[in-house]
Structures are given as C-alpha cells and as structure tokens.
Amino acid sequence: TPAPAANFIKNIVEADLAAGKHAQRHWAGHPGTAADHAAAPLDAAKIRTRFPPEPNGYLHFGHAKSILLNFGLAQAYGGRCHLRFDDTNPEKEEQEYVDSIIDAVKWLGCSWEQAGETNLYQASNYFDWMAQFAEYLISAGHAYVDSQSADEMRANRGTLTQPGKDSPFRTRSAAESMDLFKRMQAGEFPDGAHILRAKIDMASPNINLRDPAIYRIRHATHHNTGDKWCVYPMYTFAHPIEDALENITHSICTLEFEDQRPFYDWLLERLAEGGLLQRPLPQQIEFSRLNLTYVVLSKRKLIQLVDEKHVEGWDDPRLPTLVGARRRGYSADGFRLFMDRVGVTKNDSLIDYVLFEDAMREVMNESDQRRVAVLDPLKLIIDNYPESQFEDCAVTNHPLHPELGTRTMPFGRELWIEAEDFQEVPEKGFRRLFPGNKARLKYGYIVECTGCDKDENGKVVAVHCTYLPDTKSGTPGADSVKVKGNLHWVSVAHAYPAEVRLYDRLFSVPAPGARREGDAPELERNFLDDLNPASKTLITAQLEPSLKDALPEQRFQFERHGYFAADRVDSKAGAPVFNRAVTLKDSWGK
Ligand code: ATP
Ligand code: MG
Ligand code: MG
Asked: Residue ranges of the Glutamyl/glutaminyl-tRNA synthetase class Ib catalytic domain (predicted)?
C-alpha cells in the first residue's frame, strides 16, 4: 500500500517525532497516575491515536475517514491506534452498536491489536479515575458544586456578546462542595438537584470556558457499570481524561470541537499540575468532517431513514453506513483510495459522490474478475447452428491479469443477449444487431442478423441470425470478417437466472433538504422529500453458469455493466443474488 498523501496532521506528527516530544513517555498498559506511569517502561509506541465512537448508532462514511486517518497514522509512524468505545452516557448505548462498530473497523482492514498490545477500551472503565480527578479539582479550588436550577444556569451563562454571571454557589468552600459531590455519588439527590462545574471564568469570550458542567446526577443503569454510579461525567470532561489515561499523543477530532480545545487543555493542565497525569499531555487536533453529495451523514437523519422505513434496515445497500457499503459490495480498499484523495484539511467542503464512485471503480477494475451477465434478456436464435449441440468458448478472467487464466462458457443455438443490442430499425451509428448486419458474439462467432419474431403487440420476442463457422474467437479465421459491433451473451440452456438489485443514489439532489435557488423565503425543505423514488430496481438477469457458485460478498465486474457483489444476507448456497455496487462509468444524469 502506498504511503498516504501528506497532510497538516502528518506534518504535526513528524515535527513532534523530530523534536522527540513523546520519546520519554512511559506506558503502563493501563490507566494510571503520573507516578504509576513513571514506574513503567518507556512507551515503545512512537505515537498513539484513537478512534472513539459513541456506541449509539451504526458507523457511516464519515467515520471511515476518521478510522482510516487514525489507524493510518499509527501504522505509518510506528504507533498504535486505540479503538475506544466512548460510552460515558448511560442511556443511549447498546451492545448491537458495539458489535457493528467492531465489524466495521475490521472490515476496513484496521486492527487495534498491534505489536502484542490489544488496544480495545471502554471509557466507562475509567469512571473511578474520573470521579477521583473531579474530587482533586474540588480540593484544589478548580471545581464547585452548583445548586442553581437548570433555568437559572442557562440565564446566567450569558451570550456570545454578553459575559455570564457568577453563580451564588461559586464561592462555596471546597469542603462543602466535596461533601455535596460525595453525597451526589451516594445517591442522596434527585437528577438535576446539583451539578459539578469547573471554576474557570464566567466572563470568558469562549462560552465553553464559562464554568462548564463536568458531572451531573443521573439515576440510570449503565450497560457496563450497571447501577454502580448515579453521577456521570460530561463528554467534554471525560474525553480529555480518556485520552490522557490511554497515553494518546495526538487526539484527532472534527472541527466542531475546536472551541472545546481550550477546556481540553485547561483540564489536563490542572490534572498534570496536581501530579495526576504524566506529561507531555495529549494534543487535540481538529480536521474538517467528510461531507458527500447525494447522501446524509448524520446519525440523527440515518436513524430517521431506518426507523421510518424509507430503507430496509441499517445495512440497506443504499445507506451511507459501513454495513450498507459492505453489503452493497463497495470495497474497503476503495474507501482507502477515496480518503487519500479527499485528504485531510481544516476547510469544510462538500465532496462530489462521483469521486467516491471513481475510487471504487479504480480499485475494483484492478481487483475484480470479469463475468458475463445479461441484465435485460432477449433470445437470439442461431438458425444454422445445430439444435442440442454445444461447444466451449474460452473466456478471459481478467484482461489486466492474464495470470488469472481463462474459463469456459457454453455456446449453443439459443443465447440470451441484451435487448438493447438489437434494433429492428437501427438508429444512426448503431453497430450491433439489426437485419442484414454482422456483429461479433464476444468469445464466440460472428453472426449475421436475419430478422426477428414479434408477439401480437409488436414487441420483439426473439432475434434470428446465422453464424459464420470459421470466425470463432481465438481461431485463425477470427479476423477474416471485419465487424464493428461486439456483444455479450449466455447460453439459454445453461444460464443462471438470478435476482439482481440495481441500486442508484438514495437522494436525487446533491444536498438533500438544503434550500435551492428560487425557493420562496418561507419554504422549509425536508431531506425526506429529496429521496430518489427509483433508488432500487429489482430485475431477473441471466448470468453465466459459473456465477451460480459465487460466495456471499464475492464481487465481479459484469462486463459492460459494472461491479456486482453476491448479497451477504440474501444469498443461499448455489443461489446467490447480486447487488450492483457501481456502474462502469458515471451514468448519473444521462
Ligand atoms: P454524527 O455527528 O454523525 O452523529 P458522531 O460524531 O456523533 O457522528 P461519534 O461516534 O461520536 O459520532 O464519532 C466518532 C468519531 O468519528 C469522532 O472522532 C468524530 O469526530 C468522527 N466523525 C464523525 N462524523 C465524521 C465525519 N463526517 N467526518 C469525519 N469524521 C467524523
Ligand atoms: Mg458523538
Ligand atoms: Mg457528531
């Protein structure tokens, strides 16, 4: 695999490595205080990154960017990347999501098992540390228990232009706050009665520094810690601590966390001052999130699409989830190529879906064997070819890889061809079958079209032709007759009729739900109104016989059509059904 392209995060990492910033870090293999770490050996990992999903939904294409970036950096620089379930919120998380995240990360080819370390973590395992750190902050005068109501707190927070107002409880003694925080933990108070806040600056121009909440009372059962806790840390408090306890060197996140960085640094500095964390501290670095045309990449919208049954579940091949991508037949290497091309920047941009599809095509063109499939079958009858006689034609498995050899396809008197390969009255420039014209049946013979049969409505139901016996592909006579048209076919007697799903874009406009030029000022658009009604077409195709043995998830290029994968859910042994991942060329809008 080629080295990923340069980007500003790589520059930061390289500068840190050159300066030896992390060379003296100790690695205990488990969370610990600065003293615990100092007793441990030096960290063999040059850098540590992490991918920290909240297990409250399925991963989407945007997460793939973060996964490939974090695991890619670790791999490129002799580091480790941790998979961490950010499960500090007791109410929203489920095992189903944990399992699907593990599958998706593995599918992308990333591993948290590196150099004998298994770096799979759960943030909820740090609740003891977090509570201890919160108590330290109280004792050092950096946190206090606030007993204002939620409304009072909101009113006193101020605005972007107006400073906030100190809470009357801000001057509470450390001893009183400590007593209250202990009693919060003991379950003495109902939800919302008190809250623990960092004591920073209610007049800060950055609202995130106006005494942010760090611990709240929540009488809820947690999927990992059960009923042990009735106080839970806020995300902005928990996340920097998780990073520090895991020895993360570069904590990479999306731009919406930029305003949180001052608090991230403030918190870790206070804890390091107190001797609770080793230095150097993790550094938060923000990059712009992936936005793609024709899809939505927000958990909330994806949940709505699934819950309201606009799609058939989280793994619907039309959804931009990673389970959906896998089922559709997209390639993990294609994701890697696409993300390399998109790059890592701090500029928000909307990436054209065509770029994604082109990366997929490029990877699949190289990796996928060719097969023959007739998607819109019309019968071709070769009147001068003996009935019940068949012969083998040699077919190349991969034109770019002759070493992959050939296979055979049976040829006979009756073949399926694409309906569009015959025109009774040819339009200008049409070079395939029409009465009087000759064309090549690829890998087989040259045939001359003689006419067609029609039903009572005038619909063509069969095409007739005669073949030129000396013109078989691969024989000396193959070039004796020159023809311009070339078509694919499968033997009627041998074809495997299969269900094939032709997927198209889920939305019919580039920015679903966004206002468009000319919209009346009062018009509010809903992304659901932009769903493409023709995003899925079911057909019965006639496939070459060998495709009957395709295994779930096996993918092929169907010649002239695109890349198709055997569906991993609905395929049965000896009876695969196929999903179109992507067409050969961009046909959108044509
Ligand atoms: P969403 O915003 O879609 O609800 P999330 O950010 O809540 O997703 P998390 O599970 O918290 O999802 O995210 C895990 C990691 O993936 C975070 O580091 C987050 O920044 C990153 N991530 C999420 N969406 C994108 C995106 N579109 N592009 C790049 N990284 C993303
Ligand atoms: Mg989140
Ligand atoms: Mg988010």
From this structure: 46-362
Beta bridge partners of 534: none
Three-state DSSP state, 351:
strand
**Inter-residue contact 434 to 425 (CB < 8 Å):** yes
Report yes or no on 2 lying in a domain.
no
Which ligand 1 atom is nearest residue 254's CA?
A: 20
- Give strand ranges (E) for 234-346: 250-254, 283-287
From 225, 254, 287, give the residue that closes a domain: 287
Query: Could you report the per-residue pLDDT of 20-37, keeping only the tens digit for each?
Result: 999 999 999 888 999 999
299 is in an annotated binding site: yes
Task: Identify the residue whose tokens are 């840190």.
Answer: 16
At 584 the pLDDT is 95
Helix axes 261-273, 235-245, angle to 10 degrees: 50
Please state the ipTM of this predicted complex: 0.95
Query: Per the structure, how many domains does the chain have?
Result: 4
> How far apart are the C-alpha atoms of 107 and 67, rounded to whole Å?
11
With a 6 Å cutoff on the Cβ, whether 282 touches ligand 1 is: no
Angstrom distance (rounded) from CA 82 to CA 59: 16
CA-to-CA separations, 41 to 28, 45, 495, in angstroms, rounded = 7, 11, 64
Q: What is the CA(73)–ligand 2 centre distance, in A?
A: 22
Tokens linked to 409: 């396809």
User: Does residue 251 share a domain with residue 199?
Assistant: no
Q: Give per-residue pLDDT as tens, 395-407.
A: 999 999 999 999 9
Rounded to the nearest 5°, which phi and psi values hold at 269? -60, -45
| 3 lies in some domain | no
Q: Which are the contacts of 560, defined by CB distance < 8 A and separation ≥ 6?
A: 488, 584
Flag whether 1 is in a domain: no
Q: Output the residue whose Cα is nearest ligand 1's atom 4.
A: 299
Is residue 129 helix, strand or coil?
Answer: helix
What's the rounded Cα separation, in Å, for the pair 242 and 86?
9
The C-alpha atoms of residue 226 and residue 228 are separated, in whole angstroms, by 6
The residue among 246, 268, 287 that closes a domain is 287
The whole-model pTM stands at 0.94
Percent with pLDDT over 90 in the chain: 94
